[in-house]
Specification:
Layout: H1 3-6, H2 8-21, E1 25-30, E2 33-44, E3 47-58, E4 68-71, E5 84-90, E6 95-101, H3 109-112, H4 119-140, H5 152-162, H6 170-180, E7 190-191, E8 194-198, H7 204-213, H8 216-237
Antiparallel strand pairs: 1-2, 2-3, 3-4, 5-6, 7-8
């Protein structure tokens, strides 16, 4: 059963919330899914700047999974450089590319739209920041909130930032995250960054900060993805056949 059938009150709350704060957005059921669509207005320094035509698909297991945001007015040139993720749907004769907004690196979800947040929070936070940044880029050629690398590199960048490490310190990042999965770290354990220091008095505070934000399942998924990426790069560097 999909979320809006399982919990009709959640859909009612979403509709009423939009009616109170986002009059230019509408809700409809399309192909068995709930879709939000309309005009998204961008304001800079409390003054109207521009608008984008958008569509937001709510997944069947919303709010467990994230809504997916599209810019449908073809105002923005879609690419990884403008923070869009390319995927494909199968047509009758060929694959049709579609581009969804990359709002943030996957682990950032737990800070940017944590459990308990509603749909309006999603709009006022990640969606607003995304299109505000797009409008600012159109005017200045710069990204308002900086720019995190794309794909797996963005995940590395997130954890490097949290651990006050460099993104190229991959093995140290991964070792720190392994400790994030341990319930009780012994006081004598050495820190991955420096064997002369104890973990408990070095990186443990930063590791604990990650544990306080992210669910264990997210950390496990990210360790797996980063480890696979790291091993693949090591095999390429070693000249292993078939890795190029």
């Amino acid at each position: 059963m999909v979320w809006w059938e399982d919990d009709p009150a959640l859909l009612d709350s979403l509709v009423s919330g939009l009616a109170k704060e986002f009059l230019d957005l509408s809700v409809k059921k399309q192909g068995g899914k709930v879709v939000v669509f309309g005009d998204w207005h961008v304001y800079m320094d409390k003054e109207y700047a521009t608008s984008y035509t958008i569509k937001i698909d709510l997944p069947d297991d919303y709010p467990i999974s994230m809504p997916v945001v599209y810019e449908t007015g073809n105002r923005i040139k879609k690419s990884v450089d403008t923070h869009f993720i390319r995927s494909e749907i199968r047509g009758n004769y060929s694959a049709i590319p579609i581009y969804s907004a990359c709002l943030f690196a996957p682990p950032e979800r737990w800070e940017r739209w944590p459990p308990g947040s509603n749909f309006n929070d999603f709009l006022k936070g990640p969606v607003n920041d995304f299109f505000l940044s797009q409008a600012y880029y159109e005017l200045t050629g710069k990204w308002l909130f900086g720019e995190r690398p794309h794909g797996i590199e963005g995940i590395f960048d997130y954890y490097a930032e949290k651990l006050n490490l460099k993104t190229e310190q991959v093995s140290i990042i991964l070792k720190c995250l392994q400790y994030a999965l341990i319930r009780d770290v012994k006081s004598h354990v050495k820190c991955p960054c420096d064997k002369s220091k104890r973990l408990i008095s070095c990186h443990w505070r930063l590791i604990k900060g990650i544990v306080d934000i992210l669910p264990r399942e997210q950390i496990i998924i990210d360790i797996k993805r980063m480890s696979e990426n790291y091993l693949r790069k090591q095999r390429i560097l070693s000249g292993e056949p078939g890795m190029l």
